[in-house]
Every structure is written in C-alpha cells, then in structure tokens.
Write a structure and sequence with these properties.
Layout (H helix, E strand, L loop, with lengths): L5 H9 L12 E5 L2 E4 L4 E4 L12 H11 L11 H11 L8 E5 L2 H15 L4 E5 L8 H4 L15 E4 L13 H21 L4 E7 L14 H11 L3 E5 L13 H5 L5 E4 L10 E5 L1 H10 L10 H16 L2 H20 L5 E7 L2 E9 L4 E2 L1 H13 L2 E2 L1 E3 L5 E4 L7 H20 L2
Parallel strand pairs: 3-14, 5-6, 5-7, 7-8, 8-9
Antiparallel strand pairs: 1-2, 2-3, 4-10, 9-10, 11-12, 12-13, 12-16, 15-16
Helix pairs in contact: 2-10, 6-7, 11-13, 12-13
The chain binds 4'-deoxy-4'-aminopyridoxal-5'-phosphate.
C-alpha cells in the first residue's frame, strides 16, 4: 500500500527537488520499454534515454551482479576488463582517438574537458550556446544557461545563439545564415582576446538536444570547428545525450559531420549504472596528464565497466542502431500524418530514436505553444505514455525511448498522441 503522505515526506526530506507531471508518478518497477506505477498502471517509457538497452536489462543486471561479487576496486591497479573496454570504446569512433578518461557523470566529463582545454589552449575562454545544458559542477554550470533562472555573466564564458533552421537568425538562410552564426563565434573569440582572457574552445551537444533538437544548417558545424581550431581552441563534442547509438549512429558528431578534439559521454553508457568518460587523442591527454594528476575514486572501477561492456554487447548483438533508425523514422512519419489533422504540430525533427516535435499556436507565425506542449505531456501520461518537453520556448515534445522500442511500441505512442491531441483540440 503506497504511503499517502509520501509527497509531503519527500518535500520535508529532499526539499523542492524537481518532479515531473501535475500529478507526480510513483514508479515501482521497470522492464524493457515499460515502467510500472504503484497504482498498478503500465507506462510506455518514451522519455528515458539512460536505460538505452531497456529498463532492468538482464544482460546488464547479470554483468553488474557477477562483477560486484568478483572485484570492484579503483583504477590504480591493472585490470584487463577495464583495458579491454577502453580499447573497444575507442574502436567505435571513425576519428583516431587514443585514450579514455573515466568519470562518474556527464558533468564530470565536461568539467575535465574544460580543464584540458583551458590548460592546453592559448587562453581560458569557452564558448557555448545560449540554451545549452552541460551539467552541474561549478565550472560546467557556467556553460549551462538553459537552467539559469536569470541571465548570469561569467568572465571566461561567452554564449552564442544556437544554430537552427526553423527560426533562423534574423530570418536568414543558406550561406548567409551560416556566416551570421560564424560571425557570432568570431566576435566571441575576439572579445576574449580583447579582455586578455584568450580562447580555449567551443563545447556543444552534437545534436543540440537541450536546445530542442533543431535542424542545423548544412556545413555549419564543420565550418565552426575549423574556425575554433584556427583560433587555437578545442572542439568539444558533448555526446552525453547523443552517444551510444541514440541517433542511429554510434556518435552524434558522425551524424552531424564534424570532427571533435574531445568527446564526452555518460547517461546511457551504463544503462543507469553511473559511468561516464571522455575520449581524446594521446597528444592532448598526455600533455594534460603531464600537468595534472587526475584521479577519480569511483570512475572506471570494474562494476561500472562491466555494465558499460554489457551495454555495448546489447547494442551490437540486437542491432539497436538499425532499430533506432527504423523505429525513429516510423515515429516521425506517424507525426507527419498527424500533422495533417493537428495544426499544433509545427515541425518534426531528429534522428533515430531522438524525436523532437515543435508545438506551435500558428504555423504561419511559428508562435511557440509551451502551454499546449505541457498539457500534451500530462495528457500523454494519463494515456499511459511518458514524454517531456524541452527547448528555448519549452514547446518541443521530447521523445527518447529506450533503443529497444519496437514498431508495436511506436504504434502505442502514436495512438496515445492522437487521442491526446483530440482532447487538447476539444478543450483548447
Ligand atoms: N551534457 C548534456 C548534453 C546533458 O543533457 C546532461 C544531463 N542532462 C549532462 C551533460 C550532465 O550529465 P550528468 O547529469 O550525468 O552530470
């Protein structure tokens, strides 16, 4: 019998730690693409990207249990399971990356990336986008304006407008649009130089997930990377959301057509077990380690690595990247059909099983519909389907199911979206 006072007790014990939904959910069990509430209801999970190979995946559970009962110790001893995994991970990139540095969270990986860039580049200035989120340490909070309640200024950070094609900068298009975005970047670099701070690098999520998964002008990210390198900075690709096959490619930068110097990863890496990392070239990480002693108590211990290895096994053996492409395209096609009936659907974006649906009040003006998006998320929950919303205007329906999501689950999602939009339309 669930405790009727649990919300009040949670508030007392945890403070106003955020919760989803007007009526918060109490979950008691997960299995594959489904989560189960304490009310006995089953929910199709179209939100959680961390359990990428499915909630409570048996192979991951067994790997964790086996390793936990064998050995789990910090990284200053030799361990073949850790070396084997590092080699396997490095083999998943097209770019020649030579070394892995383990961390426990995406925030820590990005924090390390900033330290590396700032120690090895000519200056300390970091560029991020104006609606980025990269984590919760003091350093990465400075490059995470998405969750700042009011604009804040940090001397060693400049934000630039995130690139997009649905509401492009000053309504521009084509080469002129690309140049306008690049000009902002050049101005940020110049302002670091003028302030005597100098430039260290550009960090961005390879698919701009937190910005609302916008369509990116072709060629822009390769041109931006070239500009960053000409100025002596590092290109840091945050793959915490995009990595491990989510987009149908193993890494978001492979999809988006640019070559990073440092890649950070986390979230789905251990299917929920905390494990994260960054990878880079030997020249970079050797130079860093020559200046800094980096050690991290829990990072890269054997249980974390066992979980991560089982995730790679599942992605490979079950063809989950192919599945992500096939089912993701099917869901986008389903939304395109629904868009013929529902004006609220303004734009359908994404790749693989990362789907963003921009909700608008008016397709002509593209006026964002954040309230409708929020109501839709709550209606979908009532219909047994978990989603979220994200983006600059809080109006992008965020769909990121575990990669084991099949066509039958996609049909379940699309049915729930259709009935929820009907309800929304009936009482606007
Ligand atoms: N980078 C991105 C793009 C993220 O979305 C997040 C988390 N939402 C992070 C980094 C931080 O990861 P973590 O919560 O594991 O510290």
């Amino acid at each position: 019998m669930p405790d009727p006072n649990i919300l009040a007790r949670r508030l007392r014990a945890l403070g106003s730690s955020p919760l989803f939904y007007a009526e918060p959910l109490t979950l008691v069990r997960g299995d594959g693409v489904y989560l189960y509430g304490d009310d006995g209801r089953r929910y199709l999970d179209c939100y959680n990207n961390i359990p990428c190979v499915g909630h409570c995946n048996q192979r991951v559970v067994d790997a964790i249990a086996r390793q936990a009962s064998t050995l789990n110790v910090h990284s200053r001893y030799v361990s073949d399971i850790v070396v084997n995994y590092a080699e396997r991970l490095l083999g998943s990139f097209d770019t020649k990356f030579d070394q892995v540095m383990f961390t426990c969270s995406g925030s820590e990986a990005n924090d390390q990336a900033l330290r590396i860039a700032r120690l090895l580049a000519p200056g300390r200035g970091i560029i991020c986008t104006n609606f980025a989120y990269h984590g919760n340490t003091a350093a990465v909070d400075e490059i995470s304006p998405l969750f700042h309640h009011a604009p804040q200024h940090f001397a060693e950070v400049r934000t630039i407008t995130y690139p997009e094609m649905y509401r492009p900068l000053r309504g521009l298009s084509g080469e002129v649009l690309n140049q306008a975005y690049l000009n902002e970047m050049q101005a940020a670099i110049d302002s670091f130089d003028e302030a005597g701070i100098g430039f260290a690098g550009f960090i961005f999520c390879s698919v701009f997930a937190n910005e609302g998964l916008p369509a990116i002008p072709p060629g822009l990210l390769a041109a931006a990377s070239a500009l960053v390198r000409r100025a002596g900075g590092f290109v840091i690709s945050d793959e915490v959301q995009a990595g491990f096959g989510r987009t149908g490619k193993m890494w978001g930068h492979q999809l988006m057509g640019f070559t990073p110097d440092i890649v950070t990863m986390g979230k789905p890496m251990g299917n929920g077990y905390p494990v994260a990392a960054l990878v880079s070239r030997a020249d970079i990480l050797d130079a860093y380690r020559a200046k800094v002693f980096y050690f991290n108590t829990f990072a890269g211990a054997q249980v974390a690595v066992a979980a991560a290895g089982a995730v790679l096994d599942e992605i490979e053996d079950r063809g989950l990247m192919d599945n992500a492409r096939r089912v993701g395209d099917y869901i986008r096609a389903g939304f395109a059909r629904l868009a013929k009936r529902f004006e609220l659907i303004g734009d359908i974006r994404g790749a693989g099983l990362w789907i963003g649906v921009e909700m608008v009040r008016d397709r002509q003006t593209r006026a964002p519909a954040p309230d409708e998006a929020l109501r839709l998320v709550n209606l979908l929950k009532d219909a047994g389907c978990l989603t979220g919303r994200i983006g600059e205007h809080d109006n992008v329906l965020k769909i990121r199911p575990p990669l084991v999501c099949g066509i039958e689950h996609a049909d379940e999602l699309l049915g729930a979206v259709e009935s929820s939009l009907e309800k929304l339309q009936a009482s606007p």
